[in-house]
Amino acid sequence: MTGAYDDRDGKIWMDGKLVDWRAAQVHVLTHGLHYASSVFEGERAYNGKIFKSRAHSERLHFSASCLDFEIPFSVDEIEAAKVEVLAANGFTDAYVRAVAWRGAGEDMGVSSARNPVRLAIATWAWGNYYGDAKMQGAKLDISKWKRPSPETIPVHAKAAGLYMICTTSKHAAEAKGCSDALFMDYRGYVAEATGANIFFVKDGEVHTPLPDCFLNGLTRQTVIGMLKERDIPVHERHIMPEEMEGFQQCWLTGTAAEVTPVGQIGDFTFEVGAMTRDISEAYEKMVRS
After folding, report:
1. Which CATH superfamily is domain 133-287 in?
2. How do the domains of the chain map onto residue ranges?
3. How far apart are CA 202 and CA 225, in angstroms?
4. Rounded CA separation 3/89 (Å)
5. What pTM did the predictor assign?
6. Element containing residue 64 per DSSP (H, E)
7. Spatial distance between the Cα atoms of 223 and 68, rounded to a whole number of angstroms
8. Is the confidence at residue 201, as pLDDT, over 80?
9. What is the DSSP pairing of strand 197-202 with strand 180-185?
10. Domain formed by 11-124, architecture
11. Of 158, 170, 176, 202, which one is the catalytic site residue?
12. Is 158 labeled as catalytic in the residue annotation?
């Protein structure tokens, strides 16, 4: 499946039924388009099974509640819909995108309590998110933007509005020849990349930012569990930017990113070492088991 995302063959599950890909449309006065009243999940299917599928569906409901709306489909119904749309498109290995939003209705201002909540699920073939960096080590820029305080926005929701600075930061990074950008948080601590959590290695121990103002990714949680099973110390803590000079290895985690080594962040460089390769290979084996 190639070409623009609005002009492809296939089916998309939308509001309870499968529709032709090109017919999966919304009105220009959709509330989510104007006011970011939208939440989503990014998932991957391996060998016909979506990794941590139910956890993703549960988080979609949680994110919606953070934005003060309720998805009109249960977790079980969402689970069944994902299976249906994968089968309809003939996929066993694919990316799965579930998105819920306040649609067009009687309200067209900040308030949207009378507007219907809609849900769509699409799936498509998607390879390595960072391309060759999956093997060689990604190069990251450092964003001028910062992850906001929990007092300003629901930072633990996977909400569309939180990705506005991700898009601008990734564009700026790509213009410099980088794969992605690293955010600091509102206090100046290392936070995350535009769509992935980050891990560092020093002297056989792992350090990762405490997710107190950004998403605690499901892949992040999985990898921490894998490290602990290997009796590798994991320190979830606040990390200052200057500490990156002393770290020897680095990798990113996320559904799209999977486990991707990092070779450079700004002026800081890292080796694609044995621990990084081991975790990356073990994760790949686990999700396909």
Report:
1. D-amino Acid Aminotransferase, subunit A, domain 2 (3.20.10.10)
2. 11-124, 133-287
3. 18
4. 16
5. 0.95
6. helix 53-66
7. 31
8. yes
9. unpaired
10. 2-Layer Sandwich (3.30)
11. 158
12. yes
